[in-house]
Amino acid sequence: MILLLGVGVIGYTTVVGRAATSRQATFPPPPSPPPGTAPFPKPNFTVVPPTVGPQEGIPAITPTLKTTDPKAATFTEQDARNYIAQVRIKNHPEVPAPVITSVRFLTVAQVASTLSLNVGFDTNELVCVVQLNESGTVAAPGSQQPKSYTIVFDIYNARTGYLLSETLR
């Protein structure tokens, strides 16, 4: 089961074999902040939870490489850089463009050991990790104080190009 959280809405998908069903539940909006306090700023990005399965995530980078090797990447480092530059600027023109500090193709096991990130895939699965220098503040779940971040890790499935997760540090 995968939970996708939104403002006042929880959607979930149950996958059994090859069939998938989706349901959506609606809840009242969260209460207003106490008098004299400011509401948390809205995040300027989407945080994608780790998912399981080769077609999970959000469609993102378009594969450009043809390969019959089931473990090989279907897009290049430059494809990842181009996607970040185009999508971040197009979707968030009010935010300064992030600086891409690295693009690496790693196995899930390497991501877990070197970056301490849980991707939720098989340890031998190849992913593309894009590290960005980007500053911002988000409302932290269960906290009254916004949390700042300066580094973002976007993790893409190296076969499909789908965005699997975005981690802020």
Radius of gyration: 17 Å
Shape: globular
Strand arrangement across the biggest beta sheet? 4-5-6-7
The structural class is: mainly beta
Unreliable runs:
1-27, 39-46, 50-54
Number of strands: 7
- Fraction in beta strands: 35-45%
Helix content: 10-25%
On the 0 to 100 scale, the average pLDDT is: 73
Major sheet details: 4 strands, antiparallel
Distance between the termini: 26 Å
Succession of helices and strands: EEEHEHEEE
Number of helices, where a helix is a run of at least 4 consecutive DSSP H or I residues: 2
Note down, in words, how this protein is organized.
The protein is mainly β and 169 residues long. It has two helices and seven strands, in the order βββαβαβββ. The protein has helices at residues 77-91, 108-115; strands spanning 2-6, 9-16, 19-26, 99-107, 126-139, 146-157, 163-168. The strands form two sheets. It has a four-stranded antiparallel sheet with strand order 4-5-6-7. Strands 1-2-3 form a three-stranded antiparallel sheet, with no helix packed on it. A hairpin with a 6-residue loop joins β5 (126-139) and β6 (146-157). The two termini are 26 Å apart.
State the gist of this model.
The chain is built from two helices and seven strands.
Features:
169 residues; mainly beta; four-stranded antiparallel β-sheet; three-stranded antiparallel β-sheet; 2 helices; globular
Please specify the SSE layout and strand pairing.
Elements: E1 2-6, E2 9-16, E3 19-26, H1 77-91, E4 99-107, H2 108-115, E5 126-139, E6 146-157, E7 163-168
Antiparallel strand pairs: 1-2, 2-3, 4-5, 5-6, 6-7
